[in-house]
Design a protein that fits this description.
alpha+beta, Outer membrane efflux proteins (OEP), disordered N terminus, disordered C terminus
Length: about 475
């Protein structure tokens, strides 16, 4: 029996170690290849519509309107043709809202947030790429070569958790885009009613100015004939000046209101060409009763839904932070090394990189995650309180605006007309002067203007109530995750 020498034993051990390392290296390569195949087979992919169908469904359910994400020249041309067809006729409030939803650059910019969020969602569902490292040095025919293939084990293990978090964020991005749609519709309705009321008001105030001008001219003639005093003429001229200035302010307000409407519609430089309906819509016979208005707000407001999703995502982040608090970097991979001449065989093995939590045990990261989660919970509680108060105030204004508008239309305006008709009869009977008659005519016209403003206030209060029930999109700083 031959007993191997110490040198032979060491050589055999080295050979066995080399074989084991080579097998390990081959196993690592096969595992890396399998991991890459798994990544290709199971990686997250982009949806056909970028998650926009949910936004479109919300717009249809809440507004009864079509909304599109214009991502191709063909889609943009189709929307422009539809907008042009609507602009060729006098716009109703529904037409104005539809134009804004199809034509607003701000809304299209908000939809791009969906693309950003979906890209982050898809990225979170893909496994990290392996890292290849090559170090090569030589001198006098002696080589020092090191080849390493590694992957972040921690990233692989946390992919499902990170993907779940990003999925919630993507859902919140969809809700935020839907909130932008609802807000734009509310702003457009308000701008439409303001523009329509401003036009009607300017029209009636022009009539007031004409009546005041007639009165001032009669006063001048009466004064010239010696039938009127200087103070009486001055009163009529003062009233005319006041009416003329009020009309100028009304014209300026009409211009501003039309420009605001044009901006809401996404129309550039065509505000004077906007064709509106002849007058404000008729008031409804009765207002909508909403006994559970606060509960409706808490259930349906989009901003509260977004905040709830954020709380869920932060809870997931907190759990993940606690699970990985001691390990922030963990890379593992196969290594192949040659040290010596070119004829020297490679040494095979593996390499592991691990961050040692010597100075930072992850406590600060956990504390930060806990504080962010607690902050989100408190902000949600505050938002819920404010939402209830907002919807109560909006509902109270809605009811009061309807009551005021109805009484202006059905009581105050008929009374002023009755007084004017009676004064006309008294004027025919020479019981009052022409100046009394003009004063009553001016009062009637003012009553008409008050009715216009009251009807506008009702419709804007209705839009404000709809917006309060739907909620608003959070600001960018509030939705940062």
């Amino acid at each position: 029996m031959t007993i191997p020498t110490r040198h032979e034993s060491t050589r055999h051990e080295s050979t066995r170690h080399d074989r084991w390392c080579r097998r390990g290296y081959r196993r690592w390569c096969r595992w890396s290849a399998a991991l890459g195949a798994l990544s290709l087979a199971g990686c997250a992919t982009f949806s056909r519509d970028g998650g926009f169908s949910g936004v479109a469904d919300t717009a249809q359910a809440r507004l009864g309107k079509e909304v599109r994400w214009l991502r191709t020249p063909e889609e943009r041309a189709s929307a422009e043709a539809q907008v042009a067809a609507l602009m060729r006729r006098p716009l109703s409030v529904d037409d104005a809202v539809q134009i804004a939803l199809l034509n607003s650059p701000a809304l299209q910019a908000a939809f791009q947030e969906l693309g950003i969020s979906e890209a982050e969602l898809v990225q979170s569902g893909r496994l990290p790429n392996p890292r290849l490292t090559l170090r090569h040095a030589s001198a006098g025919g002696v080589y020092d070569i090191e080849e390493t293939a590694s992957v972040s084990v921690l990233s692989v293990l946390t992919v499902p958790y990170v993907h779940a978090i990003e999925k919630r964020r993507f859902g919140a991005a969809q809700d935020a885009a839907a909130a932008e749609v609802v807000q734009l519709a509310a702003r457009t309705r308000e701008a439409y009613f303001n523009a329509l009321a401003a036009r009607e008001s300017a029209r009636y105030l022009a009539t007031v100015k004409e009546a005041a001008e007639t009165g001032a001219e009669l006063a001048r003639r009466m004064r010239a004939a010696g039938n009127w005093s200087r103070i009486d003429e001055a009163r009529e001229r003062s009233f005319y000046l006041s009416a003329a200035l009020t009309w100028e302010r009304a014209r300026a307000a009409e211009t501003v209101a039309r420009e605001n409407l044009a901006a809401a519609l996404g129309v550039a430089g065509d505000a004077p060409d906007l064709r509106l309906a002849d007058r404000l819509p008729d008031l409804p016979q009765s207002i909508e009763e909403l006994p559970g208005v606060e509960r409706m707000a808490l259930e349906n407001r989009i901003d509260l839904k977004i905040m709830r999703a954020r709380i869920d995502a932060l809870a997931k982040e907190l759990k993940l932070t606690k699970a990985t608090r001691f390990v922030n970097v963990l890379d593992a991979g196969a290594a192949r090394i040659r040290q010596g001449p070119a004829s020297q065989p490679y040494e095979s093995g593996y390499e592991i990189s691990l961050e040692v939590p010597l100075f930072d045990g992850g406590g600060a990261r956990v504390r930060k995650a806990e504080a962010r989660y607690a902050q989100a919970v408190e902000r949600f509680a505050e938002a819920a309180i404010e939402a209830r108060a907002e919807v109560r105030k909006a509902y109270a204004r809605y009811r009061a605006a309807h009551e005021i508008a109805v009484r202006e239309r059905d009581e105050a305006l008929p009374l002023r007309k009755l007084i004017s008709e009676e004064d006309l009869l008294r004027y025919d009977a020479a019981e009052i002067s022409v100046f009394d008659l003009l004063a009553d005519a001016r009062s009637e016209i003012r009553a008409v203007d008050d009715t216009i403003q009251s009807e506008r206030d009702f419709w804007t209060a209705k839009s404000a109530l709809d917006e309060a029930l739907s909620g608003s999109a959070p600001q960018t700083g509030e939705t940062s995750w």
